Amino acid sequence: MGTRLRETASEVAALLWREHVVYRERGGGVVIRGEHVQRWISMAPSGGRGEVLVRAGRILDGGTTAPARTEALARLDAGTHELAATCRRLLAEVTTEATPSAPPTRRVRKRGRRIRKGRHTSLTSWVVIVGVIALVGLYAYNAALSHR
Q: How far is 35 from 33, CA to CA, in rounded Å?
């Protein structure tokens, strides 16, 4: 089954991508890597006779593979085109899951500092300044009254 799986994976890879690498996994499965699209597909023998477990995932920036996002069982004798269709469906699911739904709108705070919006002195600072001036004025007024 190993040789047949590798041959089938090579045929599927040729249908999916022009640029690809096919190699064997430790567990007896086959991996197809499409570096230019940052995706991978794995085909491994399943418990059922003639079935393969097809998994798809992303390739991260450093070249390492992220865990599989989707998987499906497929019949090895179904034909190369049907296996390629299953792989395309899984790759489409990986692509839709990988795209962010909306860009973040808030800026990230650094070192716990607040984000300033153009004002140098906030309302709280002005209240503190006015309070200190009032206390100094009250002290000066009381001092002037007591020396009379």
A: 6
**Residue pLDDT, tens place only, 46-99:** 877 788 899 998 888 887 788 788 888 988 888 889 999 999 999 898 887 655
* Strand pairing category for 70-75 and 30-34: unpaired
CA distance 85 to 116: 52
Q: 125: number of CA atoms within 13 Å, CB side?
A: 4
Compute the half-sphere exposure of residue 95: CA atoms within 13 Å on the CB side of its CA. Answer: 9
- 39-45 and 51-58 beta bridge pairing: antiparallel
CA distance 67 to 21: 18
Q: Which strands make up the sheet holding 70-75, listed edge to edge?
A: 21-24, 30-34, 39-45, 51-58, 70-75
pTM (2 d.p.): 0.61
DSSP state of 67: P
**36 and 21 Cβ atoms separated by less than 8 Å:** no
